[in-house]
Amino acid sequence: MTKLTHLSATGDAHMVDVSAKADTKRLARARGRVVMAPETLALAVAGQAKKGDVFGVARVAGIMAAKKTSELIPLCHPLPLSSVSVEITPDESLPGLRVDVEAGVTGKTGVEMEALTAVSVACLTIYDMLKAVDRGMRIDGVELVSKEGGKSGDWRRE
């Protein structure tokens, strides 16, 4: 069984000491989606949401969230992020919006949580921006797509 690094020998939660690790380039990609009524998607794409630019606000919210991850997730290390990109794409087949995030850092620990937090907050922001017209929206499919770098190496979702 794999040992959980955030638990001490006695089973107490603690922040992992990464001071002995070398700084390496690390990259993580995550995704999620907000499923909504076709009319809600059309409203967002047309830029006619009462609260403003759904895409722009959600993109900035995702970037801000990535930067605040260590303040939200108790055992995450604060990271000096070198990059965060948030792409929001309409998808009529859902119907809804797809959110893709890529986060990068050169450091001692990975950026998976930052990418996942950015996706989650961008999706929540989309919901907030459009909830007045569609409370039945659904956020789902939030997942890590890939990670690169670090001691454990690269990983990709099949």
Automatic annotation (TrEMBL):
Keywords: Lyase, Molybdenum cofactor biosynthesis. Pathway: Cofactor biosynthesis; molybdopterin biosynthesis. It catalyses: (8S)-3',8-cyclo-7,8-dihydroguanosine 5'-triphosphate = cyclic pyranopterin phosphate + diphosphate. Pfam families: MoaC. Residues 15-150 form the Molybdopterin cofactor biosynthesis C (MoaC) domain. It comes from the Bacteria. The active site is at residue 128. Substrate binds at residues 75-77, 113-114. Its EC number is 4.6.1.17. Transmembrane segments: none annotated. The keyword Zinc does not apply. InterPro entries: MoaC, MoaC_bact/euk, MoaC_sf, MoCo_biosynth_MoaA/MoaC, Mopterin_CF_biosynth-C_dom. Belongs to the MoaC family. Homohexamer; trimer of dimers. PANTHER family: CYCLIC PYRANOPTERIN MONOPHOSPHATE SYNTHASE, MOLYBDOPTERIN COFACTOR SYNTHESIS PROTEIN A. Catalyzes the conversion of (8S)-3',8-cyclo-7,8-dihydroguanosine 5'-triphosphate to cyclic pyranopterin monophosphate (cPMP). This is Cyclic pyranopterin monophosphate synthase. It comes from Methylocystis iwaonis. The lineage of its organism: Bacteria, Pseudomonadati, Pseudomonadota, Alphaproteobacteria, Hyphomicrobiales.
